[in-house]
## 1
Amino acid sequence: MATKILVTGGTGYIGSHTVVELQNAGYEVVIIDNLSNSNIEVLDGIEAITGRRPDFVKGDVTDMGTLRKLFEEHADIKGIINFAASKAVGESVQKPLLYYRNNLVSLLNLLELMPEFGVKGIVFSSSCTVYGEPDVNPIDETAPYKPATSPYGNTKQISEEIITDFVHAGAPVKSVILRYFNPVGAHPSALIGELPNGVPNNLVPYLTQTAAGIRKELTVFGNDYDTPDGSCVRDFIDVVDLAKAHVTAMHRMLENDSTDPVEIFNIGTGRGLSVLELIDSFQRATGVKVPYKIGARREGDIEKIWAEPTKANTVLGWKAEVPVDDTMRNAWAWQCRLAEKK
Ligand code: UD1
């Protein structure tokens, strides 16, 4: 019988791509999502790609009653991947309590119910934001936390600590914490992708919307940084590669391969690319020009950060594979598909 996995936030951007990879790998998936930042039609996309529609519960992970009922109805859930969280850095500064509630209460609820329902492991979505501005690049998992610059970033640090404290207190659960760098792109089928709400904050959705003529021009936030071309440097990781890291992590926990009950992995390519280089890649890969201008630095931005992914490559056995030009082509195909649907 297929192993059943609960994916919270499974209709969201990274969640939906992970559900596809889980189903492709033979797992059975139950999604819980409150659809606050996603659309029920995502299930059609997942079904079209994999030939299988995952079970879906519309509900909020911060609601213990809903969650308990879900575990009673699906008593055979063996693992959890927790994507249900708010992720807009700027909004978190405006609405800190919303972020602390959504991101922390949901995690507490899941952890509390895991032993009772015999759930063995949880994969947690963390972020390279825990490192702040790195002293050295590439940065590895042993680097200490830097003070968080937003409530969003703080929830990631606190969540990692909650999981670690709980497991070290002897709870019969395991966890793999994945620190994502900058997830970008879309499924190559263009059937699922990112659905930003309103004006995008993140670079790639803003870029593809500009290329599509929805936005007049892209602003590059600063070209006077201490980097080769002056723009910020990031580690852009393809969303399908990232999704596959979750499948590998789940397998590792459930098959008892993990050496430590809590393991932390950087999920990145190991290559830093500047904002201007990414725009170049997009133009080269798609043949579409993106009007852009250089603007002021954005407050709170990190100058440069990219991953040392060797631990994920060797211990987890996962490696980023998709070339960035392909990622940009996929992001563009998804943007075109969104335009067709309107
Ligand atoms: C932010 C968060 C990260 C979170 C990620 C996903 C921080 C420090 N970073 O990453 O934790 O996981 O969002 O939501 O909290 N840029 C432009 N023009 C634009 C938009 C962006 O030049 O219109 C530049 C930014 O200045 C930055 C780069 O593109 O240098 C990437 O920005 P963005 O996509 O917003 O991601 P991060 O800020 O790196």
## 2
Amino acid sequence: MLGQMMQQPLLISTLIVHAERHHPEREIVSRRVEGDIHRTTYKELASRSRRMAKALARLGVKAGDRVATLAWNGYRHMELYYAVSGSGAVLHTVNPRLHPDQIVYIADHAEDQVLFFDLTFLPLVAAVAGRTKTVRHWVAMSDRAHVPAEAAAKIPGLLFYEDLVAAEDDRYDWPSFDENSASSLCYTSGTTGNPKGVLYSHRSTLLHTFAAALPDALNCSANDVILPVVPMFHVNAWGLPYVACLTGAKMVYPGAALDGKSLYELFENEQVTVSAGVPTVWQGLLAYVQANGLKFSSMRRTVIGGSACPPAMLRTFGDEFDVHVLHAWGMTEMSPLGTVCSFKPAHLKQTQEQRYEVMAKQGRAVFGVDMKIVDEAGQELAFGGEASGDLLVSGPWIVTEYFKGEGGNPLVTDEAGRGWFPTGDVAKIDADGYMQITDRSKDVIKSGGEWIGSIDLENIAMAHPAVAMAACIAAPHPKWDERPLLVVVKKPGAEVTREELLAFFDGKIAKWWTPDDVVFVDAIPLGATGKMQKNKLREQFKDHKLPTA
Ligand code: ADP
């Protein structure tokens, strides 16, 4: 017997329709690449999205065609989120921090038809425009007046965003189609090998949006003012531009200015309540507010994920600024949300100290995501055990295969025939279901056949007052195969010796986990999404002679 409820496909366009109808006057504020602060509303944003949808049709974009962006967080980018996906085309957000060769590779692989870009990326676009195979139109996300004629001349047939919008009216009905249709495409950052595409659907995006907004997930409401620092080219800014319309929250977009001073000004001027970003960006902001003796007057919580949030950082946010950190974990292949570290009732009775220990874990599964850890034989390990295992996930917003079948079938099938995606992370899950990443499988340090969790070691090093950034990598060892080598960037003006740092580990971990050596460097290479590139460090220190070797 079938249920008797309305059959309506879950489509991304329904989000913008809802926001326009129920939160028309709520603001969207953007720091523009043009240099000013721009203000608009959901009503205006919805109208311009419809105009842009018409403009795309006029450019010959059809359902399923890929439309790319090279853009910062801003209102025009958000308009494209809705105009492109809502009209049935596929929004391909390209990470502008990738090497131009990789951008050409990705644009060709995705067969992008149109590419929209922020003015910052004019030189990049001029460099790649003659090399891509399928892009028919290049659109500068600005008006004509802001694009220097000389630069524009380097891009044949350049179009201007504001011209396209101005040429259309907003009488447009969002089309209805199968909710399983592709909506957007993100490539993994490709720290090893060529990037692979993950193709989201309208259905997966909507389900992810419902789950992401929940109180025990990102906890967003109409009363919030949300500033996503996480870029809209990095897994759809963790879904926040969709959560925005679902909740009717005020949105604040920082554009290209991600330094501590610019962010802080925006947080205060717009009275931001919630933010989200990777740990490295918070370092800059915290350093700025600490150096200037400032406080956050409105910010209540921030989501930190993408790589492990050092416990020292969540304490600084909590103790010094009264900002609650929501530690979250996910990946491009998971849209991205997998777990969020929000409390259960028992935690509310605990001391702040005990709670910080919980908060350092990546958290419990958001409804919709099932997760388990398995041993080397693929046997599931029970929650609450001491051992770590490979982390596998399953759910309606998790990838089944990469775009164009790249890399073959990534899934592992269990005895019941259910497919699980191996995350490549190594984790523990406690009795309450809180998952803690101990490593990425390719970053694991294997000493005498036993794993050493590099994230634990980095977290300890990062708690030292003189340490700005720390990476722990495997260095070759004749007896133990591998031993931990700590690579450290000191805070400006701070001093610490190798011996002092090694002594700092005493009593905090098993003795044999203590790194064998420390090297000080000026900088640790960061990838396109702000993560430490440990593969580069391993390459750099592959001949490092450990004093114990
Ligand atoms: P890529 O895999 O290309 O680096 P993603 O942004 O999809 O790009 O990264 C997903 C990976 O990032 C996860 O598999 C995990 O290793 C790491 N990660 C994400 N969030 C966290 C977190 N809170 N703690 C530790 N690692 C994290």
